[in-house]
Amino acid sequence: MSVQLPPLRETVRTHGLAASKALGQNFLFDEQLLTRIAAIPGSLEGQPVYEVGPGPGGLTRALLRAGANVTVVERDRRCLPALAELAEAFPGQLRVIEGDALAIPLADVLPEGGHILSNLPYNVGTALLVGWLGGTEWPPRWASLTLMFQKEVAERIVAGSGSDAFGRLAVLAQWRSAARIAMPVHRSAFTPPPKVMSAVVHLTPEAMPEGVSPALLERLTAAAFGQRRKMLRQSLKSVPGAVEALTGLGIDPARRAETLEVGDFVRLARALG
Hints:
Number of helices: 12
Structural class: alpha/beta
Low-confidence stretches: none
Number of strands: 9
Order of helices and strands: HEHEHEHEHEHEHHEEEHHHH
Shape: elongated
Oligomer: single chain
Protein backbone atom coordinates (compact mmCIF):
# COMPACT_ATOMS: atom_id res chain seq x y z
CA MET A 1 0.00 0.00 0.00
CA SER A 2 1.55 3.31 -1.09
CA VAL A 3 0.58 6.21 1.14
CA GLN A 4 2.37 9.55 0.79
CA LEU A 5 3.49 10.83 4.17
CA PRO A 6 5.78 13.70 5.14
CA PRO A 7 9.36 12.70 6.03
CA LEU A 8 9.72 11.49 9.62
CA ARG A 9 11.98 14.40 10.53
CA GLU A 10 9.27 16.81 9.37
CA THR A 11 6.66 14.98 11.48
CA VAL A 12 8.93 15.23 14.53
CA ARG A 13 9.48 18.97 13.94
CA THR A 14 5.78 19.63 13.39
CA HIS A 15 4.81 17.99 16.68
CA GLY A 16 7.85 19.14 18.68
CA LEU A 17 8.91 15.58 19.49
CA ALA A 18 12.41 15.80 20.94
CA ALA A 19 13.41 12.32 22.17
CA SER A 20 12.93 11.90 25.92
CA LYS A 21 15.93 10.48 27.78
CA ALA A 22 13.67 9.68 30.76
CA LEU A 23 11.53 7.43 28.51
CA GLY A 24 14.56 5.77 26.91
CA GLN A 25 13.71 7.19 23.48
CA ASN A 26 16.02 7.22 20.46
CA PHE A 27 14.29 7.83 17.13
CA LEU A 28 15.12 6.09 13.84
CA PHE A 29 14.55 8.22 10.72
CA ASP A 30 16.06 5.97 8.02
CA GLU A 31 12.96 4.60 6.30
CA GLN A 32 14.91 2.06 4.25
CA LEU A 33 16.37 0.63 7.47
CA LEU A 34 12.91 0.56 9.07
CA THR A 35 11.52 -1.27 6.03
CA ARG A 36 14.28 -3.89 6.38
CA ILE A 37 13.43 -4.39 10.06
CA ALA A 38 9.73 -4.82 9.23
CA ALA A 39 10.66 -7.50 6.67
CA ILE A 40 12.62 -9.70 9.12
CA PRO A 41 9.64 -11.89 10.21
CA GLY A 42 8.55 -12.43 6.59
CA SER A 43 5.27 -11.29 5.03
CA LEU A 44 3.08 -9.28 7.42
CA GLU A 45 0.21 -8.76 4.99
CA GLY A 46 -3.00 -9.00 7.05
CA GLN A 47 -1.05 -10.10 10.15
CA PRO A 48 -1.67 -8.73 13.67
CA VAL A 49 1.44 -6.92 14.94
CA TYR A 50 2.15 -5.37 18.33
CA GLU A 51 4.65 -2.52 18.75
CA VAL A 52 5.79 -1.00 22.04
CA GLY A 53 6.90 2.64 22.24
CA PRO A 54 6.40 3.69 18.61
CA GLY A 55 7.32 7.32 19.35
CA PRO A 56 6.63 9.37 16.19
CA GLY A 57 5.80 6.17 14.31
CA GLY A 58 8.84 5.40 12.16
CA LEU A 59 8.69 1.61 12.44
CA THR A 60 4.89 1.85 12.58
CA ARG A 61 4.90 3.34 9.06
CA ALA A 62 6.98 0.45 7.77
CA LEU A 63 4.67 -2.10 9.40
CA LEU A 64 1.54 -0.44 7.99
CA ARG A 65 3.08 -0.26 4.53
CA ALA A 66 3.82 -3.99 4.82
CA GLY A 67 0.06 -4.53 5.23
CA ALA A 68 0.07 -5.38 8.95
CA ASN A 69 -2.78 -4.65 11.34
CA VAL A 70 -0.86 -2.85 14.05
CA THR A 71 -1.58 -2.21 17.72
CA VAL A 72 0.82 0.21 19.41
CA VAL A 73 1.18 1.11 23.08
CA GLU A 74 2.70 4.53 23.76
CA ARG A 75 3.03 6.24 27.14
CA ASP A 76 4.36 9.55 25.78
CA ARG A 77 1.26 11.67 25.16
CA ARG A 78 3.26 14.03 22.95
CA CYS A 79 3.46 11.29 20.30
CA LEU A 80 -0.28 10.58 20.11
CA PRO A 81 -1.17 13.28 17.51
CA ALA A 82 1.50 11.97 15.11
CA LEU A 83 0.19 8.43 15.58
CA ALA A 84 -3.39 9.65 15.03
CA GLU A 85 -2.28 11.03 11.65
CA LEU A 86 -0.92 7.59 10.77
CA ALA A 87 -4.22 5.98 11.77
CA GLU A 88 -6.02 8.36 9.38
CA ALA A 89 -3.59 7.60 6.56
CA PHE A 90 -4.07 3.82 6.98
CA PRO A 91 -7.80 3.43 7.79
CA GLY A 92 -8.62 0.41 9.93
CA GLN A 93 -4.99 -0.75 10.19
CA LEU A 94 -3.76 1.03 13.33
CA ARG A 95 -4.98 0.92 16.93
CA VAL A 96 -3.27 3.27 19.37
CA ILE A 97 -3.34 2.61 23.12
CA GLU A 98 -1.99 5.16 25.57
CA GLY A 99 -0.40 3.37 28.51
CA ASP A 100 2.50 1.50 30.05
CA ALA A 101 3.35 -1.70 28.14
CA LEU A 102 4.59 -3.34 31.34
CA ALA A 103 1.07 -3.09 32.78
CA ILE A 104 -0.87 -4.29 29.70
CA PRO A 105 -1.54 -8.05 29.27
CA LEU A 106 -0.45 -9.46 25.93
CA ALA A 107 -3.95 -10.87 25.44
CA ASP A 108 -5.27 -7.29 25.29
CA VAL A 109 -3.03 -6.31 22.38
CA LEU A 110 -2.72 -9.66 20.56
CA PRO A 111 -6.07 -11.36 21.27
CA GLU A 112 -5.70 -13.64 18.23
CA GLY A 113 -1.91 -13.95 18.41
CA GLY A 114 0.56 -12.37 16.00
CA HIS A 115 4.01 -10.84 15.78
CA ILE A 116 5.81 -8.38 18.06
CA LEU A 117 8.14 -5.87 16.44
CA SER A 118 9.61 -2.98 18.36
CA ASN A 119 12.52 -0.62 18.81
CA LEU A 120 12.16 -1.16 22.55
CA PRO A 121 12.74 1.73 24.95
CA TYR A 122 16.11 0.94 26.54
CA ASN A 123 14.81 1.26 30.10
CA VAL A 124 12.09 -1.42 29.84
CA GLY A 125 13.26 -3.67 27.00
CA THR A 126 14.72 -6.50 29.08
CA ALA A 127 11.75 -6.61 31.46
CA LEU A 128 9.32 -6.86 28.54
CA LEU A 129 11.35 -9.62 26.88
CA VAL A 130 11.52 -11.72 30.06
CA GLY A 131 7.75 -11.36 30.41
CA TRP A 132 7.12 -12.48 26.82
CA LEU A 133 9.47 -15.46 27.24
CA GLY A 134 7.89 -16.60 30.50
CA GLY A 135 4.66 -18.24 31.54
CA THR A 136 3.14 -21.67 30.99
CA GLU A 137 1.22 -20.77 27.80
CA TRP A 138 3.23 -22.37 24.97
CA PRO A 139 3.35 -21.99 22.04
CA PRO A 140 3.08 -18.36 23.14
CA ARG A 141 0.70 -15.73 21.84
CA TRP A 142 3.51 -14.33 19.67
CA ALA A 143 4.57 -16.01 16.43
CA SER A 144 7.86 -14.11 16.45
CA LEU A 145 9.70 -11.37 18.32
CA THR A 146 11.73 -8.85 16.30
CA LEU A 147 13.25 -6.49 18.82
CA MET A 148 15.88 -3.76 18.88
CA PHE A 149 18.23 -3.82 21.87
CA GLN A 150 21.57 -2.39 22.85
CA LYS A 151 24.14 -4.64 21.14
CA GLU A 152 25.39 -5.91 24.52
CA VAL A 153 21.88 -7.07 25.49
CA ALA A 154 21.34 -8.65 22.06
CA GLU A 155 24.55 -10.63 22.50
CA ARG A 156 23.40 -11.83 25.92
CA ILE A 157 20.17 -13.16 24.39
CA VAL A 158 21.91 -15.29 21.74
CA ALA A 159 25.06 -16.20 23.73
CA GLY A 160 26.34 -19.74 23.93
CA SER A 161 27.62 -21.58 27.00
CA GLY A 162 31.08 -20.65 28.20
CA SER A 163 31.02 -17.08 26.87
CA ASP A 164 31.08 -14.02 29.09
CA ALA A 165 27.68 -13.01 27.71
CA PHE A 166 26.02 -16.33 28.58
CA GLY A 167 23.59 -15.92 31.45
CA ARG A 168 19.98 -15.85 32.54
CA LEU A 169 18.71 -14.10 29.39
CA ALA A 170 20.31 -16.70 27.12
CA VAL A 171 18.73 -19.61 29.00
CA LEU A 172 15.27 -18.03 29.16
CA ALA A 173 15.44 -17.12 25.46
CA GLN A 174 16.84 -20.39 24.15
CA TRP A 175 15.26 -23.20 26.18
CA ARG A 176 12.10 -23.18 24.06
CA SER A 177 12.77 -20.70 21.27
CA ALA A 178 15.39 -20.00 18.60
CA ALA A 179 17.21 -16.68 18.88
CA ARG A 180 19.51 -14.94 16.39
CA ILE A 181 20.88 -11.48 15.75
CA ALA A 182 19.15 -10.45 12.52
CA MET A 183 20.84 -7.09 11.95
CA PRO A 184 23.36 -4.76 13.59
CA VAL A 185 22.33 -1.10 13.76
CA HIS A 186 24.96 1.63 14.06
CA ARG A 187 24.49 4.27 16.75
CA SER A 188 24.59 6.98 14.06
CA ALA A 189 21.23 5.75 12.71
CA PHE A 190 19.46 7.17 15.77
CA THR A 191 18.48 10.67 16.84
CA PRO A 192 19.91 11.43 19.30
CA PRO A 193 22.71 8.85 18.83
CA PRO A 194 22.97 6.59 21.89
CA LYS A 195 26.38 5.93 23.42
CA VAL A 196 26.28 2.27 22.38
CA MET A 197 25.64 0.19 19.25
CA SER A 198 22.34 -1.63 18.77
CA ALA A 199 21.16 -4.85 17.14
CA VAL A 200 17.86 -6.41 16.11
CA VAL A 201 17.16 -9.84 17.62
CA HIS A 202 14.68 -12.27 16.05
CA LEU A 203 13.12 -15.06 18.14
CA THR A 204 10.70 -17.80 17.10
CA PRO A 205 9.05 -20.37 19.41
CA GLU A 206 10.19 -24.00 19.39
CA ALA A 207 8.81 -27.08 21.11
CA MET A 208 8.71 -26.80 24.88
CA PRO A 209 10.64 -29.53 26.73
CA GLU A 210 8.27 -31.77 28.67
CA GLY A 211 8.10 -31.84 32.44
CA VAL A 212 9.71 -28.43 33.00
CA SER A 213 8.17 -25.63 35.06
CA PRO A 214 8.95 -22.22 33.51
CA ALA A 215 8.67 -20.59 36.94
CA LEU A 216 11.19 -23.04 38.41
CA LEU A 217 13.59 -22.52 35.50
CA GLU A 218 13.37 -18.75 36.03
CA ARG A 219 14.10 -19.22 39.73
CA LEU A 220 17.09 -21.47 39.00
CA THR A 221 18.62 -19.07 36.50
CA ALA A 222 18.05 -16.09 38.78
CA ALA A 223 19.89 -17.89 41.60
CA ALA A 224 22.67 -19.38 39.46
CA PHE A 225 23.55 -16.19 37.60
CA GLY A 226 22.75 -13.79 40.43
CA GLN A 227 26.08 -14.85 41.92
CA ARG A 228 27.84 -15.99 38.76
CA ARG A 229 31.35 -15.84 40.24
CA LYS A 230 30.39 -18.45 42.82
CA MET A 231 30.31 -22.21 42.38
CA LEU A 232 26.87 -23.74 41.83
CA ARG A 233 26.99 -25.38 45.27
CA GLN A 234 26.92 -21.84 46.72
CA SER A 235 24.72 -19.97 44.24
CA LEU A 236 21.97 -22.65 44.19
CA LYS A 237 21.76 -23.05 47.97
CA SER A 238 18.59 -20.94 47.97
CA VAL A 239 16.75 -23.49 45.76
CA PRO A 240 15.78 -26.54 47.86
CA GLY A 241 17.20 -29.78 46.49
CA ALA A 242 19.12 -28.11 43.65
CA VAL A 243 22.64 -29.01 44.78
CA GLU A 244 21.65 -32.65 45.36
CA ALA A 245 19.94 -32.74 41.96
CA LEU A 246 23.13 -31.50 40.28
CA THR A 247 25.06 -34.47 41.70
CA GLY A 248 22.32 -36.85 40.63
CA LEU A 249 22.57 -35.52 37.07
CA GLY A 250 26.35 -35.90 37.01
CA ILE A 251 26.95 -32.13 37.05
CA ASP A 252 29.85 -31.10 39.29
CA PRO A 253 28.55 -28.61 41.90
CA ALA A 254 32.00 -26.95 41.83
CA ARG A 255 31.27 -25.63 38.32
CA ARG A 256 30.06 -22.09 37.68
CA ALA A 257 26.73 -21.31 36.02
CA GLU A 258 28.18 -20.01 32.74
CA THR A 259 29.88 -23.38 32.07
CA LEU A 260 26.54 -25.22 31.88
CA GLU A 261 24.55 -25.62 28.67
CA VAL A 262 20.96 -24.47 28.27
CA GLY A 263 20.00 -28.16 28.28
CA ASP A 264 21.66 -28.65 31.67
CA PHE A 265 19.39 -26.03 33.22
CA VAL A 266 16.39 -27.71 31.58
CA ARG A 267 17.42 -31.10 33.02
CA LEU A 268 17.91 -29.58 36.45
CA ALA A 269 14.49 -27.89 36.39
CA ARG A 270 12.90 -31.17 35.28
CA ALA A 271 14.63 -33.10 38.07
CA LEU A 272 13.41 -30.61 40.67
CA GLY A 273 9.92 -30.43 39.21
